[in-house]
Design brief:
six-stranded parallel beta sheet; globular; 187 residues
């Protein structure tokens, strides 16, 4: 499958499970989107592509309250979390990110909104296509964790009624940012 087909399939699958997906030609477009949808303070964990691109500075310049460093004290009240992703699966609309650091887990699970910055070149067909990348990841970091995030948090364990956002974010916003980071081993 071509890169364009992977992107199209990913968008369709992610939207089908309740995520919002937006193509951004540059990080500035993504920042404007985040600023208009964040709804309050943002948890920003440290991650390589965000550090390299001075994401905290860009978000602050857009007028957003950015919480970085120790995220634990503000995690319960923050409106949003922003992370990158290692890669994504076109067939399920899932984003995959290394989530060993507590700050990554806090930003992806506690706020009502999760924004994921993803380079479209890191969208692959399916889990089978992920195997070589998973082997490289685990060879480098065998005791680390990966999170597969597919749409907003959902559960039906309460009287079999589907409920969104009980065990995690009510909204998942995936921002496809051209040129963000094509390194599968980097969030």
């Amino acid at each position: 499958m071509s890169e364009d087909q992977n992107v199209d399939q990913f968008i369709a699958a992610a939207v089908r499970v309740g995520a919002s997906v937006h193509r951004c030609d540059a990080i500035t477009t993504a920042i404007v989107y985040i600023a208009s949808h964040a709804g309050g303070a943002i948890l920003l964990p440290t991650f390589p592509s965000g550090e390299r691109r001075s994401l905290a500075t860009l978000l602050r310049q857009a007028g957003l309250e950015v919480i970085s460093g120790d995220l634990r004290p503000a995690a319960a009240t923050a409106a949003a979390g922003v992370t990158g992703a290692n890669f994504a699966l076109a067939d399920t609309g899932s984003v995959v990110l290394e989530s060993t650091a507590e700050d990554i887990r806090l930003a992806t699970t506690l706020p009502e909104r999760h924004f994921v910055l993803l380079d479209p070149r890191k969208i692959i067909a399916d889990g089978a296509a992920a195997v070589p990348w998973l082997r490289k990841f685990h060879a480098r970091s065998p005791r680390h964790f990966l999170a597969y995030i597919t749409g907003p948090s959902r559960t039906a364990d309460i009287e079999r009624v589907l409920t969104i956002g009980v065990h995690g974010p009510k909204e998942l916003h995936i921002l496809l940012v051209e040129g963000w980071s094509d390194d599968f081993l980097e969030v």
